[in-house]
């Protein structure tokens, strides 16, 4: 079965949903805010005044985290416009994930998102922004395929999604013809990509263990208790890969479509008291496989 047809976070807003169990991912988005702010500011300074800014949030999942980076980007542009006395642009935001994603919950959150933007405007007191000037659309599909028209996007953001894959693509160092983001971004466009990785070339980093060890322990216990067959567990492969900075730099430079402005390693771990939250987070992504 194709991974794209089954992979999705646990839907809804219940106790076991991704929306209720993605605090770790939210903290990562907040940790990288300064990097995202700098990138979107540099992009905006090179655009024509009043130009519509097209933003893509890749692998947006569902829940509050979906709109968090979008709100941050809009707020940063607001501050740029206010400081320079410029007209506030319109925004076209594309929320992308695989077809099995819970887009219904996302669209239910749209009124809250626009209301929050309105409150931001009232707090700023600049009167530059009317929430309907931010147009949101859902885009279902894998970002390993073509999703957008040529030269459509100004800014691409993705957090904690690029580690998901079914297998290492063939000829990854030389697949220039299938780097679709290079075709979809305008000249001078920017991307901020955050992913779990490892500091060195050892393949069992702390982040990889955070993703895999709780699940492995739980599956082993289920086998011991006779609730699941050992053969099924042995045939189960978690479809993640956590790269090192050296790997990323090598691949990007060798392929040649993009340049790396900043490649930074950040460390973030859950406290020991957050063990329950860690287990819930793992369940939120692993449940779809069963």
Describe the structure.
By secondary structure, the chain is an alpha/beta fold. It has one domain: Vaccinia Virus protein VP39 (Rossmann fold, 3-Layer(aba) Sandwich). The chain is 40% helix and 13% strand. The chain contains eleven helices and five strands. It has a five-stranded parallel sheet with strand order 3-2-1-4-5. Helix 4 links the parallel strand 1 and strand 2. The model has no long low-confidence stretch (mean pLDDT 79).
What is the CATH architecture annotation?
A: 3-Layer(aba) Sandwich
Helix content: 40-55%
How many H/I helical runs?
11
**Structural class by helix and strand composition:** alpha/beta
Family: Belongs to the methyltransferase superfamily. Type-7 methyltransferase family.
Keywords: Magnesium, Metal-binding, Methyltransferase, Transferase
GO molecular function: metal ion binding; methyltransferase activity
Features:
Rossmann fold; 5 strands; MeTrfase_capping; 5-stranded parallel beta sheet; transferase; single chain; alpha/beta; 11 helices; 290 residues
Describe the structure concisely:
The protein is α/β, with parallel strands linked by helices and 290 residues long. The chain is built from eleven helices and five strands.
Protein topology:
Blueprint: H1 3-6, H2 23-31, H3 33-45, E1 53-58, H4 68-84, E2 91-97, H5 103-108, H6 110-124, E3 134-140, E4 153-159, H7 180-184, E5 185-194, H8 206-224, H9 230-234, H10 245-255, H11 275-286
Parallel strand pairs: 1-2, 1-4, 2-3, 4-5
Family: Belongs to the methyltransferase superfamily. Type-7 methyltransferase family.
Keywords: Magnesium, Metal-binding, Methyltransferase, Transferase
GO molecular function, one term: metal ion binding
């Amino acid at each position: 079965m194709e991974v794209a047809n089954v992979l999705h976070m646990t839907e809804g807003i219940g106790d076991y949903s991704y929306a209720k169990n993605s605090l770790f991912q939210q903290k990562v988005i907040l940790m990288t805010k300064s990097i995202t702010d700098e990138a979107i500011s540099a992009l905006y300074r090179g655009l024509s005044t009043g130009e519509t800014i097209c933003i893509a949030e890749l692998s947006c999942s569902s829940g509050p985290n979906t709109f968090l980076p979008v709100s941050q980007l809009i707020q940063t542009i607001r501050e740029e416009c206010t400081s320079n006395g410029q007209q506030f642009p319109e925004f076209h935001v594309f929320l992308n994930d695989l077809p099995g994603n819970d887009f219904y919950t996302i669209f239910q959150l749209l009124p809250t998102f626009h209301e929050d933007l309105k409150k931001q405007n009232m707090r700023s007191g600049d009167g530059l922004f009317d929430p309907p000037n931010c147009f949101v659309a859902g885009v279902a599909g894998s970002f390993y395929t073509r999703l957008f028209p040529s030269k459509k996007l100004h800014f691409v953001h993705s957090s904690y999604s690029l580690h998901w894959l079914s297998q290492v693509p063939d000829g990854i160092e030389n697949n220039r013809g299938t780097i679709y983001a290079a075709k979809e971004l305008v000249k001078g466009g920017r991307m901020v990509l955050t992913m779990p990785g490892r500091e060195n070339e050892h393949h069992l980093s702390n982040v990889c263990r955070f993703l895999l060890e709780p699940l492995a322990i739980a599956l082993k216990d289920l086998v011991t208790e006779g609730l699941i067959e050992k053969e099924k567990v042995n045939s189960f492969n978690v479809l993640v890969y956590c790269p090192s900075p050296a790997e990323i730099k090598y691949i990007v430079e060798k392929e040649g479509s993009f340049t790396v402005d900043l490649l930074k390693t950040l460390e973030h771990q859950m406290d020991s008291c957050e063990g329950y939250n860690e287990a819930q987070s793992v369940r939120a992504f692993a449940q779809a496989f069963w």
